[in-house]
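ZP: hey, is the FE2/S2 (inorganic) cluster complex queued? I don't see it on the tracker
AM: it wasn't, my bad. submitting now with these inputs:
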Amino acid sequence: MPKVTYVLPDQTERTIEVPEGESVMESSVRNNLPGILAECGGNCSCATCHVHVDPEWRHLFTEPTDEERELLEFAEGVQEGSRLACQLIMRDACDGVRVTAVAD
Ligand code: FES
């Protein structure tokens, strides 16, 4: 099963096994990790699941939709690797991805 390493708001890290097809947000919430609030439940309408994806893994996920890009325009702390974790769907090739929760 692929693993995701989450960098939490206190800069500690947690590595979690995530089933293929589950989003990076869903796994974080299921494991009660701080930093990814996911207020809209994954409907791409809140941006409280904002994360920075480390450069070496960015290409392994699908490109952001227009909807995701528009939401990120108004999020705080946006940088090149910014994504909404609810839109990052895990597959085996993503094993080892490291994401940093962007606390508002
Ligand atoms: S959970 Fe709301 S945009 Fe991702």
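AM: back. The chain has a mean pLDDT of 96.
ZP: great, adding it to the tracker
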